[in-house]
Specification:
By secondary structure, the protein is mainly alpha-helical. The chain has one domain. Helices cover 61% and strands 0% of the residues. Helix 1 packs antiparallel against helix 2 (41-51).
Length: 83
């Protein structure tokens, strides 16, 4: 059980940030205002937390963070814009 204390705390904070990011995304779509946060922070905390746990495959849950998809999308979209 003591092997799971730190991973659960880190992953729990990470899931809080991921859920907050999705909530902010929904609010920003309804209001039209841009809401920013720390991209990929929740996913990184989930990744580190579960890499420290005995079940390493749970680290794949870091892919639930939308920042891992939106950051490359923004970079690629910006590269193909006309100058």
């Amino acid at each position: 059980m003591s092997d799971w204390i730190l991973p659960i705390i880190l992953a729990g904070v990470g899931f809080f940030f991921v859920i907050s990011t999705y909530g902010a995304l929904l609010v920003s779509r309804k209001t039209g205002h841009h809401v920013s946060g720390f991209p990929c922070l929740g996913g990184v905390l989930i990744l580190v937390g579960f890499l420290l746990s005995p079940c390493k495959w749970l680290a794949l849950l870091c892919l639930t963070d939308i920042g891992f998809y939106m950051l490359p999308y923004a970079i690629i979209k910006g590269a193909f814009r006309k100058k």
